[in-house]
UniProtKB/TrEMBL annotation:
Protein residues bound to Mg(2+): 8, 50
Function, as annotated: Transfers the 4'-phosphopantetheine moiety from coenzyme A to a Ser of acyl-carrier-protein.
Chain's gene name: acpS
Protein name per its UniProtKB record: Holo-[acyl-carrier-protein] synthase
Biological classification of the source: Bacteria, Bacillati, Actinomycetota, Actinomycetes, Micrococcales
Entries under NCBIfam families matching the protein: acpS (TIGR00516), pantethn_trn (TIGR00556), PRK00070.3-2 (NF000832)
């Protein structure tokens, strides 16, 4: 059963201006391993974090530093959650998070589906 969905779109140039103007945003928004990525990949991950918050129905108990977007060997992105953010997901009965990312033509986008798999 789908619990929630979220989508977000980021203008990469605007994101770059924000990061240039306020460099501490990188530490506030991204984990250490994410901070090594290229700017357009960071913009897509920012969109993913925003989309996750939308899929969860709000940001209560959710912290940016507790959301990491990692990649499987195939390149498929997935969430790695920790702390109270992971607890919020469990409390809301979510058993699976589905994520897709894209970036093209100066835009980065993410779509998230939060799902609960009921036992038969």
């Amino acid at each position: 059963m789908i619990i929630g969905t979220g989508i977000d779109l980021v203008d990469v140039a605007r994101f770059e201006r924000s990061v240039t103007r306020t460099p501490r945003l990188l530490q506030r928004l991204f984990t250490a391993s994410e901070q090594t990525l290229r700017l357009r990949s960071l913009a897509a991950r920012y969109a993913a974090k925003e989309a996750l918050i939308k899929a969860l129905g709000g940001s209560d108990g959710v912290y940016w530093s507790e959301i990491e977007i990692a990649s499987e060997p195939s390149g498929r992105p997935h969430f790695v959650l920790s702390g109270s953010t992971a607890a919020v997901v469990v409390e809301r009965g979510i058993t699976a998070l589905h994520l897709t990312l894209t970036h093209d033509a100066g835009l980065a986008a993410a779509y998230v589906i939060a799902e609960r798999t009921d036992a038969a």
